[in-house]
């Protein structure tokens, strides 16, 4: 189950109904494959600092991002990406996507679509 109580199929059904019943000029399909591995640490920290003034909290997030991974007894430092399997990963990813994708659509794509 996905957040909101529906499956992926339910989401596609809702999308199909919305396209069929509402005036639709554009559909944006964003493939975020490999996203969790490529989140830029410096940007997620900037996005967090934009809304959070607590330096201790920011420091903790920095530590989580740099925690790295262990494979076959070897430690690999994390230079980018979010901790795989970490509970914080989906939260940080949603924040990152809000600034990178949602605001881009709102400020750039939507405006260009309205000008057409």
Describe what you observe in this structure.
The longest helix is centred in the C-terminal third of the chain and has 27 residues, at 89-115. It contains five helices and two strands; from the N terminus they run ααααββα. Helix 3 (41-51) packs antiparallel against helix 4 (55-65) and helix 3 (41-51) crosses helix 5. It has 116 residues and is mainly α. The chain has a two-stranded antiparallel ribbon with strand order 1-2. It is extended. The relative contact order is 0.12.
List the defining traits of the structure above.
116 residues; mainly alpha; two-stranded antiparallel ribbon; 5 helices; 2 strands; extended
Task: Return residue spans where pLDDT drops below 50 for at least 5 consecutive residues.
Answer: none
What's the average pLDDT? Answer: 85
Count up the helices: 5
End-to-end CA span: 38 Å
User: How many distinct beta strands?
Assistant: 2
Helix-residue proportion:
55-70%
Query: How is the largest sheet built, in terms of strand order?
Result: 1-2
Tell me the structural class.
mainly alpha
Largest sheet: 2 strands, antiparallel
Specify Rg, calculated over alpha carbons. 18 Å
Relative strand content: 5-15%
**Order of helix and strand elements from N to C terminus:** HHHHEEH
Using the alpha-carbon principal axes, give the shape: extended
